[in-house]
Amino acid sequence: xxxxxxxxxxxxxxxxxxxxxxxxxxxxxxxxxxxxxxxxxxxxxxxxxxxxxxxxxxxxxxxxxxxxxxxxxxxxxxxxxxxxxxxxxxxxxxxxxxxxxxxxxxxxxxxxxxxxxxxxxxxxxxxxxxxxxxxxxxxxxxxxxxxxxxxxxxxxxxxxxxxxxxxxxxxxxxxxxxxxxxxxxxxxxxxxxxxxxxxxxxxxxxxxxxxxxxxxxxxxxxxxxxxxxxxxxxxxxxxxxxxxxxxxxxxxxxxxxxxxxxxxxxxxxxxxxxxxxxxxxxxxxxxxxxxxxxxxxxxxxxxxxxxxx
Length: 309
Prior knowledge:
The protein is mainly beta. Helices cover 7% and strands 52% of the residues.
C-alpha cells in the first residue's frame, strides 16, 4: 500500500544504514487512522537488500511518534542480525483518548504541521501596501491556506498559497483564524488565531484641550507619524462663532518625519466676546506616493469668551 511519508530518518546499526519511513493510511474509507512503518536495510554498496521471508508484523496502540521511533530502533536491531536484510511493518491505531501534550500534538496534525507566524501580525495603516506570507513547518508540501473565521481588514486578501496582501481601507483591530492543509494522504490541517491592527497613519489628539483664558482661546495638540514616510503636514486651528465666520488661531506647515511620536503643536489667539467651537485639522501629503492623510477633531461644546479684547 502506498503512503506519503509523515517523516523519515536514517539510523545506523552495526555499520549498516537503515532508512526509516513513517506513513499513515486508512484501510477503509471510514476506518480508523493507522500508522505504517517500514525499515529498509542498505548494504555498504548502497544496494537495497530486502528479505522476502523476513517480514514481521506487530500491532498495538500507538500514542505518539516518539514512542514509535523507539520501537523502530528495536526493529532495526533485529534486522541487523539478518544477512539478507528484511522489511518490517508496524501498524497501530491512533489513541483518540490521549490527552495532555499528545492531544496538543494531534491538534497540529500527526505530521507535526504547525504555523510559524506570531499570533500578533505586523501592524499597518490605511491605504498602505501590505504583504505578509504565512509559513508552515512540518507536514507534506504543497500547503493550502484559507480564512476559517473572523474577518480580515477590508482591502486585504489571503491567497491559497499563504500570501496576505492588499491595502487596508480603514483602521481597527481585526481578529481572525487561519488554517493550513498539507498535501499528505490523508491531509493534516492546523489552525491558528491572529490579530492585525490597522492604526491611523497620522494621529492627532489633544495635549491641552482648547480652553478660554481671559480673552484668549488656547491649547495644544499632538501629532504622530506612524508610517515609513516623511509627511508634508499642514496644521490649522479655527475658532468658529455662531455666524460661521471662522478665525484662524493656529497654523503650522512643516515636514513631519517618519517615526515622530506626539509632537506638540500649541495654538492660541485673542478673540472678541462670543461663543466659539474650535476645529483642529491636520492634513499630511506623501507626494511621491500620491497619498493624503487627514485627521480632525473639535471641542464638544462652544467655548464662551466673556472678556473682550
